[in-house]
């Protein structure tokens, strides 16, 4: 037996789906999609700008840290050399 309520639900779904396709394909809907896409591009540009700034700052921080470590290693090396000279002088060599 055919359940007419099921057939009615399917028919209503078909009508709503068809109307939905027409609404989504209308010129007003296309204008809305265009504005949303433009906003998404603006958002992407803003995010990329922020990313670039953060990346540049991280590179600056990394370069400064390397300079600090190189300076520290050079001082430690000078101290080791001075200590070695002092040991040699005390040993009478």
* Shape, per Cα inertia axes: rod-shaped
Number of helices: 2
Order of H and E elements:
HH
* Straight-line distance between termini: 114 Å
- Number of β-strand runs: 0
Share of helical residues? over 70%
Instruction: Tell me the structural class.
Output: mainly alpha
Please compute the radius of gyration using only Cα atoms.
Answer: 37 Å
- Mean pLDDT score: 87
Classify the oligomer.
single chain
What does the largest sheet look like? none
Poorly predicted ranges (pLDDT <50, ≥5 residues)? none
Tell me what portion of residues adopts beta-strand conformation. Answer: under 5%
How would the blueprint of this fold be written?
Elements: H1 4-24, H2 27-91
Explained architecture:
With about 90 residues, this protein is mostly helical. The protein has a domain at about 25-90. It has helices at about 5-25, 25-90. The longest helix has about 60 residues, at about 25-90. The model has no long low-confidence stretch (mean pLDDT about 85).
Concise structural overview:
The chain is mostly helical and 93 residues long. It is built from two helices and no strands.
Record keyword descriptors for this entry.
2 helices, 93 residues, single chain, mainly alpha, rod-shaped, 0% strand
